[in-house]
Amino acid sequence: MSDTLSSIKSMGLSPALHEYMVAHGTPPDDILTELIAETSARLGSLSIMQIAPEQGAFMTFLIKLIGARRAIEVGTFTGYSALCIARGLPDDGELVCCDVSQEYTDIGRPFWERAGVSKKIDLRLAPALDTLAALPREPRFDFAFVDAVKSEYQAYLEALHDLVRVGGLILIDNVLWNGNVIDPQANDESTRAIRTFNDSLVEDDRFDRVMLAVSDGLTLLRVR
User: Which of 64, 134, 66, 62 is nearest to 98 (CA)?
Assistant: First the structure.
């Protein structure tokens, strides 16, 4: 599989080693591969915002592992992560997707249809914090994925804590931020926000946590 985009996001791995790793897990099928290509063709350098294939496979695996039926995603982009999440849910499962861009999410919709998962996906185009605030507290979600505005990560987490069940998982993307979290010369708003968020989790006893070097860094939180 030729996938320069995703190789860039997998820190510390050469393109050849990344390709080997993906091929020896569950590699993306034709639909996912075509969505990667379509995103790159339509959006150019912005396609770096798409998650890497090994991360998508990992998320599908986790959802099946915990038997999730209800999931929520904050930040959908062109729908690769949503497709991976929806595939892990049972036929009567539900994924609420929060995003603000119809342009980007419209790229993913045909691929959701082709994969047969569109009936599971409830896309809500509005600021994510507004969508989260309007959701009922019951029934609770089993799984959440956050990959949106970095300066709002803490606010997303506070909202999701009231929406995800005890024992449920919350995954936070980009927590290593291409290594900038430990670069003293990197002081842009997003980098500072991610550093502050990561540090706050160290003292947060509401969750069991592990930070993994998957793609651009992925923190897994289990609600206590």
Answer: 134
Q: According to DSSP H, which parts of 135-202 are helical?
A: 153-161, 189-202
Per-residue tokens: 80: 């690769």
Cα-Cα end-to-end distance for the chain: 39
Tell me the pLDDT tens digit for each residue of 112-129: 999 999 999 999 999 999
Q: If residue 96 lies in a helix (H) or strand (E), which one and from where to where?
A: strand 94-99
Average pLDDT over residues 41-65: 96
Q: Domain residues for 113?
A: 4-223
Q: Cβ neighbours of residue 219 under 8 Å, at least 6 residues apart?
A: 171, 172, 175, 198, 201, 209, 210, 211, 212
- Measured CA to CA, the distance from residue 176 to residue 217 in angstroms comes to 5
Burial string for 1-20 (b: 16+ CB within 10 Å, else e) reads: eebebbbbbbeebeeeebbe
Our count of domains for the chain comes to: 1
Is 188 in a helix, a strand, or coil?
coil
Output the domain CATH number for residue 133.
Answer: 3.40.50.150
Give the tokens for residue 116: 């047969």
- Bigger pLDDT: 137 or 5? 137
Go through the chain and tell me how many residues it has. 224
